[in-house]
Amino acid sequence: MTRVLVVDDSPQILATLRLNLRARRYQVQVAPDGKDALTGAAEWHPDLVILDLGLPDMDGVDVIRGLRGWSAVPIIVLSGRAGSGDKVDALDAGADDYVTKPFGVDELLARIRAITRRVPAGEDLPTVDVGRHSVDLNGKIVHGPGGTRVHLTPTEWGLLEILVRNPGKLISQRRLLTEVWSPNHLSETNYLRVYLASLRRKLEDDPSRPRHFITEPGMGYRFEP
Amino acid sequence: MTRVLVVDDSPQILATLRLNLRARRYQVQVAPDGKDALTGAAEWHPDLVILDLGLPDMDGVDVIRGLRGWSAVPIIVLSGRAGSGDKVDALDAGADDYVTKPFGVDELLARIRAITRRVPAGEDLPTVDVGRHSVDLNGKIVHGPGGTRVHLTPTEWGLLEILVRNPGKLISQRRLLTEVWSPNHLSETNYLRVYLASLRRKLEDDPSRPRHFITEPGMGYRFEP
DNA sequence: GCGGGCCGTCAGGGAGGCGTCAAGATTCCA
DNA sequence: TGGAATCTTGACGCCTCCCTGACGGCCCGC
């Protein structure tokens, strides 16, 4: 089932879209501002984002850039501004479509179908740079300098994905253990030490002085792009 | 270089678009009606089609259907009609975007960038080389060195196609089992072992040391060109 | 200065995944 | 109806990866 994240500060539009999308068997989650949109997308991994440009807390184009930093999820922009410059800015920042308000729900639904048809839902992870290595989360490939390749084990990929999808953010030991292992492994913090060491050995230029996989003692780990 | 086919019966629009696109280093070909559009697309294999719905000889939506019958090329529709029904029809017939006239050239160019960004231009692979063998996916034929032929079973073709269409990318066991067998066979990973062995025996130079069909333990398989 | 957490490192053992082979079971076509 | 091609199933040995425990370094408070 296609997962749609709707970002808008107007409760009416939110309610209308949620109703219409749910009736068409989409899975819907909503966010009222840019901050919630970014965290929601990082945690929920939607197949499509519908984004109003006029958000209370941040510029819509910055939200697009924030998403595009780590995700290739399709983005449909809603906006009251019909100016050519606004459209060009949003599209060039990484939006896939631009619909001006007021819009017909039928048209929006058709555009949603057009976009999800092209992207079979699920190919939303681009490549991320980690120092001199480039990490392709989609193809599960790590390229090193000079055409070399680095091999990662499933557990290493699990850790790497969570960290890289939340650049700059502190990820608690609790969350890493829960998502990579299980909620029963919350006390096994030594697993993290072993596998973080392994990731650093494979991806950091100087594993003993990590620059991208940072330890926050007592709390967790952080990925610095 | 991205190849764009522009379909419109108005000489002015044709000239304007050709000028602007050529200036942005697109390769442009034009067609004045639906018949020329279909034959032109079949012979020239454009990476993008810009299609005016108001053509003299046939309905624009039929042109879309005609293209979609055999090609997945992105289509941007131009139309003077702003009605919601027209948009829905065109998009559901297979168009990727819908721009109403009069339109700004800047906006159209931004939409072109947005669409071609997603599809990296030219990604059908009729024949693929696997070591000393060449695989014709359309004709379902494998040629070996020296004019020999290799026979593959339907299941082998199923596996081979998914792997070869995603060169370099890791394909999960889950996806292979789902698409070649069914979602009920997710636990039968032994099938994969048997048929991967079979593919290697038929296509690899040294089946015991595979160079093109790589196992990623615990995750899936990968085709290396 | 000293001790206790917390973290990084290393290497061995065990379990599960993988490749291989061959023998049924099933389907397909003549 | 018979035979051939294809798919399924099971057994066995190998190899990878995960877990585990021990040790040392660093930082902090006492």
Automatic annotation (TrEMBL), chains A, B:
BP terms from Gene Ontology: positive regulation of DNA-templated transcription
Pfam families (alphabetical): Response_reg, Trans_reg_C
Limits of the Response regulatory domain: 3-116
Keywords in alphabetical order: Cytoplasm, DNA-binding, Phosphoprotein, Transcription, Transcription regulation, Two-component regulatory system
Recorded GO MF terms: cis-regulatory region sequence-specific DNA binding; identical protein binding; phosphorelay response regulator activity
Record-annotated OmpR/PhoB-type domain positions: 125-225
Gene Ontology cellular-component terms listed: cytosol; protein-DNA complex
4-aspartylphosphate carried by residues: D52
Superkingdom per UniProt: Bacteria
Protein's cellular compartments: Cytoplasm
Predominant place of localization: cytoplasm
DNA-binding region: 125-225
Name listed for the protein in its UniProt record: Response regulator
